[in-house]
Amino acid sequence: MINRRHLIATAASGASLATLPLAATAQAKKDAVVLAMTLEPPGLDPTAGAASAIAEIVQYNIFETLTKINSDGTVSPLLAEKWEVSPDLKTYTFILRKGVKFQNGEPFNANAVKFSFERAGGEKSTNKDKRTFAMMDRVAVIDDYTVVILNKQLDPDFLFLMGQATAIIVEPKSADTNATKPVGTGPYQLSAWAKGSSVTLTKWDAYRNAAAIKMKKVTFRFISDSAAQVAALLAGDVDAFVRVTPRSVPQFKGNAKFQVVVSGSRAKTILAINNKKKPLDDVRVRRAICAAIDRKAVIEGAADGYGAPIGSHYVPGAFGYVDTTGINPFNIDKAKALLAEAGVKTPLTLSLVLPPVPYARQGGEVIASQLAKIGIVAKIENVEWAQWLSGTFTNKNYDLTIISHVEPFDLGNYAKPGYYWGYESPKFTELFDKLQNAPRAADRAKLLGDAQRMLANEAVHGFLYQPQWITVAHKGLKGLWKDMPVFVNDVSALSWS
Fold first, then answer.
1. DSSP H or E segment with residue 22
2. What's the pLDDT tens digit per position in 365-379?
3. CB-based contacts of 9: which residues, under 8 Å, 6+ apart?
4. With a threshold of 0.85, does the pTM exceed it?
5. Tens-place pLDDT, residues 336-364
6. Domain with CATH 3.40.190.10 in the chain
7. What's the CATH number of domain 268-467, 3.30.1330.10, 3.10.105.10, 3.30.70.270, 1.10.10.10?
8. Exposure winner among 66, 297, 333, 380, fewest CB in 10 A?
């Protein structure tokens, strides 16, 4: 298929359509791809910001990690060729891949690993997983290609965490400018960033396995409006929209030009509650909010039915999952009684801050309507992503907000002092520490169940649903992830048939 805009440009330059090199045009299509995303990242350094959109562009493309998380959630070698784990599960010896260079020509070695992890766990670190790296008792360089990590506590998910974007290996000289000039060991380099519009990556020819990389140019376009998302796909302006608005799916199912991939996830979409704000610091008020929420209606309104109800910060299919949806069931009368018991006079006005993602904007309307039935006026504040990160996440300036937490193993956020939702429970922290230090799978499963029930009983949030993510792409694009245990777009795996 010939690109119409290419024809126009060619005609304008004086070339005859009869002499247009069709084979060359088709070939150009074969080594370039345009992917669309809902949100634009604030920067391109995943060690410096919490936005998952950062990793969607850079993880496994520009930056690499010791391990690689695969679509099915398994872990395989990446910058580390292999590893050994001590019997107490606290010491990891990584044998590093030889012959790897950073994109500025500096060598990748054990010293770069040591620098990256000590920086991530250091006093000045803004890494959202700082706790993981701060729990490293020592990062020891044995030789250029052997590094030993001694952890203060065992962590059964450590190898998975070493494959997340917050664990990228950075080059010391360029680390401080990675947000705008990222330098990694991956197959792609940043070519251009048109703020508000797109990011373009180009294949790095000096990559160690460059011959296997099919796409020479990758463009990430940012389209937040759901109608514009559909229009861009139908017009051929984008080749794939990963995690597209579910509302658009019916227009592509049955269309022979497109493929629709419905992916499982480990994400948790929640109505986050600021536990420090009055009267939300009263568990009865939080329970009243939970009891006012009809999760099934929220799933239909926010995700067009693509989701499963959850009652805690954990999802069906994950190890140790227990069903807690019955702890705070939908019950309007109970919700009203709990507010009265807490001495809350209605109407009670609370802010409901909504980032620009469609599930939040659509879900916010549903939840505001539900809360109104118990006398809570949810005053909707639509904000852009940068405002949400600064005002809500960083400055905690909100009462309620809707957000998806996409990391698979993030129960530890509830043990973080100063985290944005203001939940600080010594009992939960003690329980989580026990969980982290339980070597037996059966013990971990029991403690995971206890943790889920504690969060549900304390109604820390209105836990809503486990989303399913939908990718719409042109039929010929191969290598898309079937499931999404983490938010990445592994462009190195893509090709055109």
1. helix 22-30
2. 999 999 999 999 999
3. none
4. no
5. 999 999 999 999 999 999 999 999 999 99
6. 31-43+186-264+469-496
7. 3.10.105.10
8. 333
